[in-house]
Every structure is written in C-alpha cells, then in structure tokens.
Write the structure tokens for this entry.
Amino acid sequence: MKIVIAPDSFKECLPAYAVGESIKKGFLTQMPEADIEVFPMADGGEGTLESLIYATKGKKVEMETSDPLGNHITTHYGILGDNKTVVIEMAQVAGLQIVTDKNINKASTFGVGELIKDAIDKGHRKFIIGLGGSATNDGGAGMLHALGGKFFDAEGEQVPVGGGYVKQIATVDLSEIHPLIYDCEIIIASDVENELCGPHGATYVFGPQKGAKEEELAELDKGIHHYANLIENASGKKLQKIPGAGAAGGLGFGLLVLGAEIRSGARIVAEAMNLEKCLQTADWVITGEGKSDSQSLYGKVPVYVASIAKKYRAKTILLSGALGKDYQQLYDYFTSCHSITRGPISLVDSMKNAEKLLYDSAYNIARLISLSPKNDINKGRL
C-alpha cells in the first residue's frame, strides 16, 4: 500500500517535516510494509523556505539585516538546488514571529529589500518570495526604499519607513531603484487574495493581528491608499485592486510594482517536490495543519493537497491540531477529519506534546486502515 504524507507546518509548534515524520512513525508501527513518502508542504507563509530547500536539496545564505522595527538581526534566505533560484520567506525578516512588541505604525519591510539586494549583487536573477505572517503594513515601502526608492514629505525631507508614516509621503522617486531588479523574475508565493485597500484590504483584514487598534484602521488604510496612488502615478501601473496586492501588509503591492507575478504558494511548493506525480499512484494521502475550519477551503495546504489527490481517486485524511468552526464543510475533500488532541488539554500542553499526539493519532488511523476489509481499503472507505 502506498501512503503519501503531505502536511503543512503546525504554526508556532512544529515545522512541516517534523509533522510528516511523526505521522510516518505512527503508520510504520502498525503498517511496517507500507510504502510511505513524506512531502513537507507550505503555502508561502511560515515554513515555505524550509520546504523548498528540503525538496530541492538547496542551501541557506546567512546575513545581517534589519528586523521590522529596524533592529539588526541575523537571518537567511535560501538558494534552491538549481543554484539559481533564491527563496525569501518574508516572515523570517519582517514577521510577527520575530517581534516582541507589535507596532504596525513603525514596522517596515526594509529587511526584505536588503535580502533581495544582497542576492542580486551576488548574481541571482530568479526569486520566489513567500508572503505570510508579516508584522508590517507599509505597502512594501520599506522594501522599495532598501532597493533605492525615495519618499519625501511636503518639505522635501525623507519620510521614515513604517506603515504609520506613508501618509506623510508627498513625492515618490523610483528612478534610483536597483537597475538589475528589472532583469529579475520575481514570483510571489501567496494564497492571500485581498486587494490593497478598503474593507477587504490589508489594513482592515490583517491590521488588528499586527497590533492596530480599531480606531486606527481607517487612518492607516487612508495612508496606504494615498501612498499607493503616488506609486501608481510614478510607475504608470494600476495595481491596488489586483488580488494578492494586500498580502503581507501590502508587500504584494510593492513587489507587483517591480514586475512580480503572484502564484499559489501551495502550488509552487508542490511543483518543486513533484507531489502530483507521487499522488497518481497513492492509495491514501494524509495531510494536516495547526487548525482546520471552513477557512481552510480558501487556499490552505490540506485542501490543495486533497484536490490533487481527488483527481487520481486517492483518498485523503485530514489530521490537524484542532478542528474549528464549520469544519464539516471539509468533508467534500476528506474521507475523514481528525483532531490530534484527546480529552481536556491546554493549548500549551497540546503544542508541547504535538509529536506524541501526532504519532498516537496516526497509529490509530493506521490500525483502522490496516484492519479494514481489503475491499473497503481499495475503495477508500473507513
């Protein structure tokens, strides 16, 4: 029997490869003869860099750069196994995971621009930039500034980087943007479809999780819209309403200004791993994420994996940290849905014991599959 394990990471808990290996161990304990392959997945957010490096046998490049609040940090970007393609996970340099104090007004994407510049100066011309988990809401202004863009206020003074300062911009000068950036192929890996501004834009939808207060949202959104209008006038491109422009606090918009193309993050990772080819001959597929609910239908890894498996009549099981509101809507994609938690347990204890909980849940599912009549196994019925 062939089993494919293709989970996302369990956010702030376990990387995707650790999730996959825990599930694999559980299955092998009950089904030692099974042919099992693990594909650590991601959707452009946390874990994308690790997954792509793992899949292509790539490497990391370490460098000093700026965090969202301008502090010096040591971070890295990846170079895929082709030794040409650079992978930048913006969460590693401008993400919520690396800040202790959320400050949406001061946080910027300057560090992302520093990583891009370093890679360009080292001769690289192809980029995959994963957007997700950002601490920023600057419309990509910080990144553009790091690459040579200039932003001046009404008095001709340089405007500080940060989401709360873009409203002060009166003049935009993109003439000194790194000239080689326009020779690059830039792929945005993101499954976020929000436009830049408005009620469904970056500020209103994602601002609160980055520390924005309710009473600040309208002013922040107005500032981003003002800044974006200036950028569009300077570049001659109308980009604000493109789905995905609002990803990562508008970093999607800033990258679109540079000629980037938005693609599904989950699809990029799956293609790098040649996942679909393996799913063509799979009997069962196991996937999962930290929490699954009705929102998982909108571009999340498990549903993407299940949709491919469905094409080849492979049956998919969802194994997640928790099942949330309206998770029953996921049954169109999954034979069964499972939470790894058992009995009353705190989130802290659940995350602390995630590997053991994954192992135990996978073992139980494997027993059910292996002890079912052969006809039911072939038809994917539990």
Remarks:
- The radius of gyration is 22 Å.
- The chain is about 35% helix and 15% strand.
- The longest strand covers residues 59-66.
